[in-house]
Amino acid sequence: MLVGVPLGLAGLALAIAAVAPSSSGADVAAVPAATVAPATPVPIAEVAEPAPDVAPSSPTPVDATTTTGSESGQSGRSAMNEANPGLDVVWRIDTEDPVFFITVDDNIRDEAVAAAGMRVVETNQIPITAFLTTNYIDGDTDYFQQVTRFGGSIQNHTVTHSWLDRPETDPRFELCTAQDELQEQFGSRPWMIRPPYGAPYIGGSNEPRLEAAAAECGVNRIVMWSAVVDNGNVSYNPGPTLQAGDIVLFHFWDPQFAEGLQMILDIGAANGLRPAALGDYL
Q1: What angle do CA 223, 227, 229 make, to 5 degrees?
Q2: Is 20:48 a contact under the CB 8 Å cutoff?
Q3: Whole-model pTM above 0.85?
Q4: Residues 222, 253: Cα–Cα separation, whole Å
Q5: Are 219 and 183 in contact (CB under 8 A)?
Q6: Distance, CA of 150 to CA of 52 (rounded, Å)
Q7: What are phi and psi of 45, to 5 degrees?
Q8: The predicted structure's pLDDT at residue 75
Q9: What is the pLDDT of residues 190-206, one digit of tens each?
Q10: Could you give the CA distance from residue 18 to residue 213 in angstroms, rounded to a whole number?
């Protein structure tokens, strides 16, 4: 079931980028303007062109008005999730609580950037939901356990960061293998996935192979986003500013990761909002 697809995704699509090959990789390349995705697979370590800006009609957000946290604070499904085991594609949370949600994708490229981000997380005890790409997180187990320890969780962002809607990509391999690898590395099995590049949902469609694989692999929340913080810039969809229920997308490799975290906290505070654990609302 496709849930809560917002309109006008061009600004958000600009933040979709490929994952780097290691924790000590090169600087991040500039993200290009929104164009139609290329016909051939995007090589790892290159910035991908975002999918076209086409979206269906009005949102139908996931309904969540109360929090029901997981026991572990790291990975366990919430009581709310257990009560709603069906597969949902989620762009934002429909809630009356004054909260928003911080999610961070991919892997580390620069240790100094990662450390600076960690300091902001620790100072503010931010519940980070980390969507990790397993080919590029070896050696960083301690970091990701620490950065998600304030009620956050470690979730699935595939093995290779491939476009999941392309014929040459095997969604079952990407999802199920990442599930096994993340469980082995962190001791818990994810139940959310964020599809790389937002494909195919940025294009306003669904992907039966992806959704079948998600169900088979034990994932029942496909998590998109309604705001992006990228290189010191923030964009929202819908609305002109941060709203209750927004799911904010960051990347661990963003050179201004720490500054972006502080910026969204300040914007949230100015709007009477605080960061909350996404897992508690799904």
Answers
A1: 110
A2: no
A3: no
A4: 22
A5: no
A6: 36
A7: 80, 0
A8: 62
A9: 999 999 999 999 987 87
A10: 22
